[in-house]
Amino acid sequence: MGKIFDWIDRRFNLKVVHKRFLKRSLPEKITYFHCLGGAAFTSYLCLIVTGLLLSIYYVPSELEAYDSIVKIQHEVRFGKVIRSVHNWSATLFIVFIILHTLRVFIHKAYAPPRQLNWLVGTLAMLLAFASGFTGYLLPWDQKAFWATEVGTSMASTIPAIGKYIMYFIRGGLDVTGVTLIRFYSMHVLWIPFFMMMALWVHFHMVRRLGIKRNL
Amino acid sequence: MDRRIFLKKIIKTFFFSVGIITSSLSVLFIYPSNISRRKTVFFDILAEDELPRKGVKRVDFTYKHKEKDVQTGFYIVADKGSILGLSPVCSHLGCLVKYNNHEKAFICPCHGGKYDIRGQVTDGPPPKPLTELPLKIADGRVYVGIKV
Asked: Where are the domains of chain A?
């Protein structure tokens, strides 16, 4: 195995790049609180893997969405487990992001020169919320429908333009099958794509700027 | 101006405008195109003698809109000698309110908005009263105006 990898690496130099990222100097006092970002990323990886699997069976259509979820729950092998892992990883993802944000805030790790990384991190957090919100509609049951009805109605409380933002999100006047499809598209294509870009930038800035020394 | 700088500027402007145009076209692409104003349509729902004498009656019915069956419902309230139709859509964030006979109030299950029997807000976050639906009585039938 090692020989094959070395042969590939002689051509692409993958090792050096990753060593540069993984073998870097860290501050002396590093605690488990510094792992929260990594924990969030681990849940993100779980979400990607389980999400890819779920998308094999899920049907994003008004008439079939709920039935496909029932099928995943009861007929598909390990379907229940995969869906549960996706559900719990999503919850933990949000929890870890918030804890990580708190850690950064308490350590004042947002201070210069790390301002931009704070902003990118915030963007990733907003994307995570958006992903949670759009994913919540996909089971297409009563809870999903009303949560989206309420959530999108909140946009309409913005003065003047709120109504149009709501139509933009819903894809029409009401929450319908059109909404389901655009939420699906956001959930599986748009948000993961922008999330990956945001995280790529986030991690590279961490490497460049290093971890802030404790107070 | 130097020829090289001039060309660079031209190319920058070109790609910048392509970026602007594609992103604005994308927003227009995503924005729903079939948003039309809702029109009030009257539906024949029940006979005049089925109207409540006193209190609240929930009426559920189905109508066809763009070849799809739409389920809907509303409340008929008979109070102090007058009859009014009330939409069950909470004015706060759009959940459906339920009439609680014990409290004589419409209660929203989502955030606890409360309306009295005439649809006026008594408690909770709703900013406006429940929408009153126009009722028409003709030839012993009751018609209700619903925006579709």
From this structure: 32-209
A145 vs A147: CA distance, rounded Å: 6
In chain B, beta strands by DSSP E: 40-47, 55-65, 68-79, 82-86, 98-100, 105-107, 114-115, 121-123, 132-133, 135-138, 141-147
| Span A161-188, pLDDT tens digits | 999 999 999 999 989 999 999 999 999 9
Residue A213 DSSP one-character state:
P
Task: Check CB contact under 8 Å for B32 and A167.
Answer: yes
> For a pLDDT cut of 90, what percent of chain A falls above it?
76
pLDDT digits (tens, 9 = 90+) for B66-122: 778 888 889 999 888 888 899 999 999 999 999 998 988 999 999 999 999 999 999
Which fold would CATH assign to domain A32-209?
A: Cytochrome Bc1 Complex; Chain C (1.20.810)
pTM: 0.86
Q: How far does CA B96 lie from the centroid of its chain?
A: 11
**Residue B10 confidence (pLDDT):** 95
Identify which of A150, A178, A182 has the shortest CB distance to residue B94: A150
Q: Identify the residue among B35, B36, B110, B148 best suited for mutation to test binding to A, counting A beta carbons within 10 A and taking the highest.
A: B35
What residues contact A170, with CB distance under 8 A and at least 6 apart? A152, A176, A178, A179, B32
Q: Does A170 contact B32 at a Cβ distance shorter than 8 Å?
A: yes
Residue with tokens 């009263």: B129
For testing contact with chain A, the best of B93, B95, B98 (most A CBs within 10 A): B93
Query: Cβ contact (<8 Å) for B32 and A153?
Result: no
Chains A, B: CB contacts within 8 A come to 29
